[in-house]
Design a protein that fits this description.
Strands 1, 2, 3, 4, 7, 8, 9, 10 and 11 form a nine-stranded mixed beta sheet that branches. The two termini are about 25 Å apart. β9 and β10 form a beta hairpin. α2 packs parallel to α5 and α2 packs parallel to α17. About 50% of the residues lie in helices and about 10% in strands. The protein is α+β, with helices and mostly antiparallel strands.
Length: about 475
């Protein structure tokens, strides 16, 4: 328990109770009960504010009734709330709130003086309070979510320069390596990146002989994972090993994604003359070594010749890619470990194309909503573990039942996404839209789910807390 000794008279009652309950709620009650306390806290805060503004006892009672009505959300909270918790919470909060009301009524003059001493702060609060959720969402989008056009162009230009350098180097050093044209991919190219243009993907397509290789779906492999595909070497009786350039990266008869990544790490990350490239591009370019990813860091030089601030850093990930029809497999050992032969089936192109088609058909704001959710999760520490894919799939699932995704319904859809996400977190399962057997929440720990649930439950009654 953490008690502060500097509170003004009248605050001790409610603050001590809330501090105690909140500090211990998630440890003994879980996400559902912690959510009850979060909602109760918000409601009591409103009660105190309203009581402080009331002119007489009759108005105080009226405002208190309105605040307790808002606690109806508690009874509607999901089944994770244990029996008896609701009564305990109500008892303690009601007692503290009653004491707080009495103390407030005894200090009308002090409240008046405090109100006069902070006119600017009060004015700002009133200004925010008159904005509707729809207006707050649009304001948040333009000030926090959307990227500056020049910032995007700069990041894309740097990524394209790196792409040109790497492709030219590989063609000169490894002319026999069958590679397609490298290109940019990911959210930076698809206008789905938010907050800052700080990462990009460089797609490196590997060219395989159709008669010598077969892409095997994850469900047909021994791994039985829908996203873990394998690439088998076939027709060995007619075309023995050595007929394909990629035979040198075979492990147990399969093309090893791990071996391909290690090859590119040595051929590109550890071999290219990065100081020379940095001088040519007028910025610091260096590989990020020590992990399974093929990653580059680009930082601009400042006026005194040193590296710029970390806020301007751009990270570029190299992704070896195998394509066959609409199937795209990437070599990402960090996602397929410990299986060295497994390739990752990327659902990102399917999700992005589906959202774009739906929005084009009805002039919808699905992608707009996705960017809002991505920014909220990125800027809120409690939600930071939620990646873009669960948010995209959440919207795709919701689009099957909701047809109105116009700009005027943005606030309704945003709140609905919060409610839907709470349900998925409670179940511990958010199925992929295209691969229902894949649970997009499987990588979250119990503690992360508790933190997310607590924040989202509070946002049910106060969605603005996500837009701070």
């Amino acid at each position: 328990m953490n008690f502060q000794g500097t509170r003004r008279r009248g605050e001790d009652g409610i603050s001590m109770v809330i501090d105690f309950l909140l500090s211990n709620a998630r440890l003994v009650m879980g996400v559902g009960a912690a959510a009850v306390l979060g909602i109760a806290t918000l409601a009591v805060k409103r009660l105190i504010d309203r009581a402080g503004r009331a002119d007489n006892d009759e108005k105080v009672e009226q405002k208190m009734a309105e605040s307790w009505e808002e606690l109806s959300l508690v009874s509607a909270s999901p089944t994770l709330i244990r029996k008896g918790i609701e009564g305990v919470v109500m008892k303690h909060v009601a007692k503290a709130a009653k004491q707080q009301k009495a103390d407030l009524c005894q200090q009308p003059q002090m409240s008046s003086l405090e109100g006069q001493s902070k006119p600017e702060s009060k004015s700002k609060r009133l200004q925010l309070s008159v904005l509707s959720l729809q207006e707050r969402l649009q304001q948040y989008y333009h000030t926090r979510v959307a990227l500056d056009v020049q910032e995007v162009q700069r990041a894309q230009s740097l990524a394209l320069d790196i792409c040109t350098e790497i492709q030219g180097f590989l063609r000169s050093r490894h002319p026999d390596m069958p590679l397609g044209e490298m290109s940019l991919g990911g959210s930076l190219l698809d206008d789905l990146q938010v907050v800052s243009a700080d990462h990009a993907c460089l797609l490196v397509p590997l060219q395989l002989e159709a008669s010598l290789w077969r892409l095997i779906p994850g469900e047909e492999t021994l791994l039985t994972h829908p996203l873990h595909w394998m690439v088998r070497r076939v027709n060995l009786e007619y075309f023995p090993k050595g007929h394909s350039y990629w035979d040198r990266y075979l492990v147990g008869g399969y093309l090893s994604a791990d071996a391909v990544v290690r090859m590119f790490s040595k051929a590109v990350m550890e071999t290219m003359n990065w100081p020379s490239i940095s001088s040519t591009m007028d910025c610091l370019v260096r590989p990020v070594l020590g992990g399974p990813e093929l990653r580059l860091e680009i930082r601009p030089w400042n006026e005194v010749g040193g590296a710029g601030s970390s806020d301007q850093t751009l990270f570029i990930s190299m992704l070896p890619l195998l394509s066959e029809g609409d199937v795209g497999l990437t070599a990402q050992p960090e996602l397929t470990s410990p299986w060295v032969n497994a390739w990752h089936l990327s659902l990102y192109p399917w999700e992005t194309q589906r959202l774009a088609r739906l929005d084009t058909a009805d002039d919808g704001y699905r992608r707009h909503t996705l960017k809002l959710l991505k920014a909220v999760c990125r800027l809120n520490p409690a939600l930071r573990s939620l990646e873009a894919s669960p948010m995209a799939n959440l919207i795709l699932h919701l689009s099957d039942s909701e047809s109105d995704w116009s700009e005027s319904s943005l606030d309704v859809r945003f709140q609905q996404c919060i409610t839907e996400l709470i349900g998925y977190l409670e179940q511990g399962v958010l199925p992929s839209y295209f691969k229902p057997a894949v649970n997009l929440l499987s990588g979250l720990s119990e503690d992360q789910v508790d933190q997310m649930g607590f924040m989202l439950y509070c946002a049910v009654s106060e969605p603005e807390i996500l837009l701070i």
